[in-house]
C-alpha cells in the first residue's frame, strides 16, 4: 500500500514540480507569472515566451526522455546479467555510437575537411552515432543467438567497448586539435541541443522501447532466479533475451545518438528504486525507475545549469558526480548489495 | 488411489551427451507417479546431463523422452513447465524477493504478461505453504533465510507449479543432518501424498538407501542401473560404482581395523550398541568371550559400566572413563 502511494501519487507530483522548477531556472530569470502565462497561453509573443518554448522546454523534455529511457535500460541489463554493476551501455551501444561519431568527426584529416561545420546534435551526427551503435549491436545480436549464457554476452559487450575505445584513440592520434575538441564536446553529452523535430523522433523511439517492457515483466521477474529456473517456469530465454536487447538498443541507442553518452543514470537509478520500494518485482521497478530516472535527470540538469550563472557544465560529468556518491552511500547503508539487489 | 504408479516419464533408447561425447547410452528408464527415485553416481558420470536432458534443456543424441503422452522435444517451454518442475543447485543472487514472491513464481506457466494471481492460484500457493510449513517465513526476504529454509522455499515453488514430475539436483547439498533428513522426508511425503513422480540427484547414499523407492545408479560404463536400493546393495552394484573404502554397505557401517584384544560385552539396548560402537572405533573385537569383560547396566535411564580386567573390578559412569580404564 505504501509503495502504491509513493508510485501513484508522490512520484508523479514530484515529476511535475521538478519540471516546472527546471523550466523556471536558467541564465535569464523569468518570473513565475510570466512562466505560467507562456506555458498555458499563446498571448504573449515575448522573448520570455521564446526562451521557454525554444530552449527550456525542449531541454526539459529531453531530460525527461533521457532519464526514463536510461533508467529502464539499466534495470533490464542488471536483471538480464544478474549483475548490479550493469548499465545501459554494457552491450557496447555507447562505444559503437562514439565510434560512429569519431569516424565522422575525426576522419576529417584523412578524408578531407568537410566536417568542421558540424554541430553536436545535428542529424549527421545522430545518423553517424546510430550507424555506429547499430553495427556493434548486430554483432552482439549474432553472438546472443549463438551462445547459451548471458555472461558471455556481457564479456563480448565489454570487449567491444575496449576495442572501439582503442580505435577512437587511434583516430584521435591522427586528428587535429579542432576535430578532437569537437569530438570531446560530443562525449560531454548535451541535452539542450535538440529541436522539436528531433525530440518528436526521439520520443517515438523511446515510447516504443518503454512499451516493450510490458511484455518483459514476467520474463525479467523469472530471470531473478537465474536462467535455468526461468526456463523451467516456461520462459523462452533466447526470445526474451533478444527482446530485451532490442528494447535496450532502442532506448540507449536513440539517447546516445541524440544526446551523446550520459553516464551513471542507468546504473544508479534502479538501485535507488530498489532501496525506496524494497522489492525486486519489475511490475513496481519499471514505472518507479521511469519516475525516479526523470526526477534525477531533471535535478542533474538543474545543477549543470549552475543557477544564477551563465555557465552550463557538461551533463555527463554532473550525472557521474552526483551518481557515484549516491551508489556508494547505498552500498554503505546496506553493507551488502545483494540485500537490496 | 487412481492413477497411482502410472508412468509419468519414460525414456526410449535414450543416448545423451554432447556433440562428440556420449555420456550415457541406451537408457530405458521409467519414472512413475507416487515414486521417489534417487539418481546416484560418481561425480562426472552424467547425473546433470541426464537431468538436463529429461527436463528438456538439452537435446538427446538419439532416442526420445516421453512425458505423459507427449514427446519432450516437441513440447514448448510452457507445456514442459506445466509438467516438470525443477529445484536446482544455483542460488538466486537477488536477496530482495520475499518468500511469497518466490513461491508465487511457480504459477508463472499459467499466468499472463502482468503475472496477476487469480484466487485459484492463491489457494494453490496457500496449500503448498501450509504443506511445507512455511507460513511463518512467508514475508521474509530471501537474504534472511538459511540454506535449509531456502531449499524448502524452492521446493514449495516447484510444488506450486503443479507438474506431475519434480526433478531435484542435490537438494540436500550444504545442509546439516537435521535439514537433510527433513528435506528428504518432505520429498517422500510429496511423492506419497501428492502422487508426484520425484527424481532426486544426490550423493547422500545413506538417506537414499532408506528413503528411495528406486535408485537410478549410473555405473561407470555409460549405463544406468534401475532397481530398488536393497537389490543394488546385495548384488554389489553400489560397491562397484562407488568403490567404497572403509564403509561396509551391507551393515551400513564404517569398517574399523580390528587389531586389539577380544572383549566380552554384556548388556542390551542402546547402552550395549553405543558401547560397542566406541570399543570398535578403538579397535577392540567384541565377542562372547575375552580376557576383558564389560557389563553395561541401566538404572532409571542412567548408564554405568563394570569392567573386569586381570581380576580387578572397576565401576565407571561414562564411556570415556571406561576407555581410559581399559588402557
Principal-axes geometry of chain A comes out as: globular
Q: Give Rg of chain B in angstroms.
A: 25 Å
DSSP helix fraction of chain B:
25-40%
Beta-strand portion of chain A reads under 5%
SSE pattern of chain A, N- to C-terminal: HHHHHHHHHHHHHHHH
The strands making up the biggest β-sheet of chain B line up spatially as: 7-8-9-4-10-11
What's the β-strand tally of chain B? 18
What is the number of E strands of chain A?
0
Distance between the termini of chain A: 21 Å
Number of helices of chain A: 16
Alpha-beta content class of chain B: alpha/beta
Kindly summarize this structure in a few lines.
The complex is a heterodimer of chains A (341) and B (327). With 341 residues, chain A is mainly α.
Write a structural description.
- The complex is a heterodimer of chains A (341) and B (327).
- Chain A is mainly alpha-helical and 341 residues long.
- Helix content of chain A is 75%, strand content 0%.
- Chain A has 16 helices and no strands.
- Chain A has helices at 2-24, 32-40, 47-80, 93-106, 108-111, 123-146, 150-173, 177-187, 196-211, 217-223, 227-232, 237-259, 265-277, 282-304, 315-334, 337-340.
- The radius of gyration of chain A is 20 Å and the shape is globular.
- With 327 residues, chain B is an alpha/beta fold.
- Helices cover 32% and strands 28% of the residues of chain B.
- Chain B has helices at 47-54, 77-83, 99-104, 119-131, 147-160, 177-193, 205-211, 229-234, 237-242, 269-281, 319-326, and strands spanning 7-18, 21-27, 30-32, 36-40, 62-67, 70-71, 84-87, 165-169, 197-201, 214-218, 224-227, 247-248, 253-254, 262-266, 285-287, 292-299, 302-309, 312-316.
- In chain B, strand 5 and strand 6 form a beta hairpin.
- The mean pLDDT of chain B is 88.
- Classes of the chains: A mainly alpha (341), B alpha/beta (327).
- The interface between A and B is medium-sized, with 29 and 33 residues.
Q: Which descriptors would you attach to this protein?
A:
heterodimer; A: 341 residues; mainly alpha; 16 helices; 0% strand; globular; B: 327 residues; alpha/beta; six-stranded mixed beta sheet; five-stranded antiparallel beta sheet; 11 helices
Amino acid at each position: 500500500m505504501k509503495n502504491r502511494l509513493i508510485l501513484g501519487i508522490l512520484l508523479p507530483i514530484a515529476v511535475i514540480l521538478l519540471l516546472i522548477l527546471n523550466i523556471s531556472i536558467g541564465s535569464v530569470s523569468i518570473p513565475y507569472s510570466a512562466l505560467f502565462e507562456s506555458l498555458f497561453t499563446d498571448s504573449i509573443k515575448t522573448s520570455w515566451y521564446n526562451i521557454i518554448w525554444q530552449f527550456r522546454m525542449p531541454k526539459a523534455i529531453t531530460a525527461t526522455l533521457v532519464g526514463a529511457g536510461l533508467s529502464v535500460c539499466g534495470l533490464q541489463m542488471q536483471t538480464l546479467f544478474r549483475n548490479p554493476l550493469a548499465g545501459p551501455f554494457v552491450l557496447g551501444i555507447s562505444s559503437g555510437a562514439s565510434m560512429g561519431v569519431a569516424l565522422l568527426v575525426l576522419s576529417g584529416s584523412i578524408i578531407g575537411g568537410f566536417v568542421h561545420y558540424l554541430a553536436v546534435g545535428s542529424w549527421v551526427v545522430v545518423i553517424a552515432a546510430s550507424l555506429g551503435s547499430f553495427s556493434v549491436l548486430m554483432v552482439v545480436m549474432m553472438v546472443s543467438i549463438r551462445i547459451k549464457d548471458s555472461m558471455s554476452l556481457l564479456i563480448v559487450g565489454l570487449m567491444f567497448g575496449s576495442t572501439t575505445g582503442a580505435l577512437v584513440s587511434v583516430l584521435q592520434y591522427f586528428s587535429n586539435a579542432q576535430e578532437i575538441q569537437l569530438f570531446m564536446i560530443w562525449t560531454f553529452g548535451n541535452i539542450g541541443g535538440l529541436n522539436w523535430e528531433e525530440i518528436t523522433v526521439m520520443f517515438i523511439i523511446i515510447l516504443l522501447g518503454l512499451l516493450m517492457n510490458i511484455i518483459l515483466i514476467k520474463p525479467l521477474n523469472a530471470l531473478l532466479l537465474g536462467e535455468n529456473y526461468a526456463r523451467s517456469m516456461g520462459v523462452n530465454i533466447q526470445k526474451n533475451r533478444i527482446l530485451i536487447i532490442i528494447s535496450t538498443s532502442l532506448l540507449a541507442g536513440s539517447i546516445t545518438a541524440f544526446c551523446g553518452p550520459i553516464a551513471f543514470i542507468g546504473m544508479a537509478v534502479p538501485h535507488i528504486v530498489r532501496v525506496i520500494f524494497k522489492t525486486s518485482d519489475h511490475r513496481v521497478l519499471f514505472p518507479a525507475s521511469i519516475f525516479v530516472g526523470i526526477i534525477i535527470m531533471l535535478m542533474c540538469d538543474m545543477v549543470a545549469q549552475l543557477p544564477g550563472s551563465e555557465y552550463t557544465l557538461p551533463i555527463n560529468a554532473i550525472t557521474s558526480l552526483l551518481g557515484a556518491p549516491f551508489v556508494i552511500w547505498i552500498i554503505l547503508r546496506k553493507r551488502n548489495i545483494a540485500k537490496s539487489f | 488411489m487412481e492413477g497411482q504408479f502410472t508412468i509419468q516419464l519414460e525414456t526410449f533408447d535414450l543416448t545423451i551427451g554432447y556433440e562428440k561425447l556420449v555420456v550415457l547410452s541406451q537408457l530405458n528408464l521409467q519414472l512413475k507417479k507416487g515414486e521417489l527415485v534417487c539418481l546416484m553416481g560418481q561425480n562426472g558420470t552424467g547425473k546433470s546431463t541426464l537431468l538436463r536432458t529429461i527436463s528438456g534443456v538439452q537435446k538427446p543424441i538419439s532416442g526420445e523422452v516421453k512425458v505423459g503422452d507427449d514427446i519432450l522435444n516437441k513440447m514448448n517451454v510452457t507445456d514442459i513447465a506445466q509438467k516438470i518442475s525443477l529445484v536446482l543447485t544455483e542460488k538466486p543472487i537477488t536477496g530482495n524477493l520475499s518468500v511469497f514472491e518466490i513461491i508465487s513464481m511457480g504459477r508463472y506457466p499459467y499466468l499472463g504478461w502482468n503475472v496477476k494471481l487469480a484466487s485459484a492460484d492463491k489457494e494453490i500457493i496457500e496449500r503448498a505453504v501450509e504443506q511445507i510449513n512455511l507460513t511463518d517465513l512467508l514475508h521474509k526476504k530471501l537474504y534472511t533465510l538459511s540454506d535449509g529454509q531456502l531449499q524448502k522455499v524452492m521446493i514449495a515453488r516447484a510444488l506450486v507449479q503443479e507438474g506431475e514430475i519434480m526433478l531435484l539436483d542435490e537438494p540436500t547439498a550444504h545442509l546439516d543432518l537435521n535439514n537433510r533428513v527433513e528435506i528428504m522426508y518432505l520429498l517422500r511425503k510429496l511423492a506419497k501424498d501428492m502422487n508426484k513422480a520425484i527424481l532426486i540427484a544426490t550423493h547422500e547414499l545413506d538417506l537414499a538407501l532408506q528413503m528411495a523407492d528406486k535408485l537410478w545408479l549410473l555405473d561407470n560404463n555409460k549405463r544406468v542401473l534401475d532397481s530398488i536400493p536393497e537389490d543394488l546393495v546385495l548384488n554389489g552394484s553400489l560397491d562397484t560404482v562407488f568403490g567404497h573404502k572403509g564403509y561396509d554397505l551391507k551393515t551400513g557401517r564404517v569398517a574399523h581395523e580390528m587389531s586389539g584384544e577380544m572383549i566380552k560385552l554384556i548388556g542390551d539396548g542402546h547402552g550395549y550398541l553405543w558401547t560397542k560402537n566406541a570399543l570398535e572405533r578403538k579397535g577392540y573385537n567384541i565377542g562372547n568371550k575375552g580376557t576383558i569383560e564389560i557389563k553395561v547396566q541401566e538404572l532409571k535411564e542412567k548408564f554405568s559400566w563394570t569392567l573386569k580386567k586381570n581380576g580387578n573390578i572397576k565401576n565407571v559412569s561414562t564411556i570415556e572413563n571406561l576407555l581410559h580404564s581399559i588402557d
